[in-house]
Write a structure and sequence with these properties.
single chain; 295 residues; alpha/beta; Rossmann fold; 9 helices; 8 strands
């Protein structure tokens, strides 16, 4: 009974009295209080900059800062991006830098750099032997004006003149061929490909059955693959465009391509536009095109 009386005296009929929590002085309590003795959760400060968040991340407080976005490429869209996805031409696969230097100009520069051509007369003779009538004409006019110019300056002048001529010719072709049926053998240099890709009546002639490069796969509907279908379609064309290495009056091109071109090369209704590549590739065969236009 004595123990029960003591509990009743202490707790008042078994009811626990409120126990006061200790009060902390304001200067000793790091967090503000709500008046009930419990720390109050501080409101987030919207004026704090991202630096404080990054410090929280570094100190291990659980904050995970988002990674910075990857830097944009310095020269336009990333590889594989198609400008026709934006506001570009509806079928245009890329916007390449236009480069009009021919294979012969590349070879001419190499010959000069290696010391195999030392005078403008030697340059003229080299152009004559290679059948480069346009370069021959330009070199003749430069020699008539000043024969003693350094060869590097002569080369720059030839490049400038040929580039201007190429731009002028390209503008004329766009007017002449706007309604023409065109067949292109790939690969082609970017500036040649871009120019002819603009025309609406275009097909890729691919008698070898090679896969289109990744950036052209979305245009596979323009491709004619089998050798038989390529020959059949070539007869209906107004223009055929391809690249080849020129040597001794003949062009060296892949055998599958030569098989198609040989089938139509005598047709007067077809205009051939040929880009001269600087080197002969392995596995090519020769074919003679009597009438063609250099591009």
């Amino acid at each position: 009974m004595k123990l029960a009386q003591k509990f009743e005296k202490w707790f008042g009929n078994n009811r626990i009295t409120q126990i006061a929590l200790p009060e902390f002085p304001a200067e000793s309590n790091p967090a503000s209080t709500s008046g009930k003795g419990f720390p109050e959760t501080p409101e987030p400060d919207s004026n704090k900059d991202d630096k404080s968040k990054m410090q929280g991340h570094k100190s291990g407080h659980g904050f995970q800062a988002p990674p910075p976005p990857p830097p944009l490429p310095p020269h336009g869209p990333p590889p594989g991006h198609h400008p026709d996805d934006d506001n570009h031409h509806h079928r245009h696969p890329g916007n390449h830098h236009h480069h009009h230097e021919s294979g012969f100009m590349f070879t001419l520069a190499e010959m000069i750099n290696e010391g195999k051509l030392c005078t403008i007369d030697e340059m003229i003779a080299f152009a004559t032997n290679r059948g480069e009538s346009e370069i021959y004409r330009i070199l003749q006019s430069i020699a008539a004006a000043d024969k003693e110019q350094p060869l590097d300056l002569i080369l720059k002048e030839v490049r400038l003149i040929t580039a201007k001529d190429a731009v002028r010719a390209s503008k004329n072709r766009k007017k002449e061929l706007s309604n023409s049926k065109i067949g292109m053998f790939l690969p082609l240099p970017p500036h040649v490909f871009d120019e002819f890709f603009e025309f609406p009546n275009l097909k890729f002639l691919n008698p070898g059955g090679h896969r289109l490069p990744p950036h052209l796969k979305k245009f596979s509907y323009l491709q004619i693959s089998s050798s038989h279908e390529c020959r059949d379609h070539a007869k209906k064309l107004d223009v055929i465009v391809f690249e080849g290495f020129r040597q001794d009056g003949a062009f060296f091109i892949p055998e599958a391509m030569a098989d198609v071109i040989d089938f139509v090369r005598e047709l007067e209704t077809i205009r051939f536009f040929i880009h001269h590549c600087p080197h002969k590739h392995h596995g090519t065969v020769s074919i003679i095109i009597k009438k063609y236009e250099k591009i």
